[in-house]
Amino acid sequence: xxxxxxxxxxxxxxxxxxxxxxxxxxxxxxxxxxxxxxxxxxxxxxxxxxxxxxxxxxxxxxxxxxxxxxxxxxxxxxxxxxxxxxxxxxxxxxxxxxxxxxxxxxxxxxxxxxxxxxxxxxxxxxxxxxxxxxxxxxxxxxxxxxxxxxxxxxxxxxxxxxxx
Length: 164
Hints:
This protein is α/β, with parallel strands linked by helices. Helices cover 37% and strands 13% of the residues. It has a single domain, classed as Response regulator (Rossmann fold, 3-Layer(aba) Sandwich). The mean pLDDT is 92.
């Protein structure tokens, strides 16, 4: 693992909502210790507008996000990854590419806010609730004493975070 900057990839099938929220949250909360990315196994091709609205609501910049294929992070020019987290059950069950750097992986599944039916207020609440769950998990990650833990302990901790 890198000594000063940890690269983290969040994966979801469509890379339009949950993984985008996680990317934005970690880049905000990680404050230079973490660089977050997101991707999808079958990207939607566009970011869900309510994901961007939720980031803005949380006072996190919402510019520059795009829905991208996870293959972008598997090639020789991809950043060396320290962690890969799946945030949807579908992506957790798929065969992932081989990631550069042999990152530690864990499943941090959360319900898909984009699947919530109802009016705009109900849908917005679903996106916010998802962001709150992800934010709590990310806060736990950024407060782990990564430099002082052995690899087995880190693996255990990141898996446990996904159960909370």
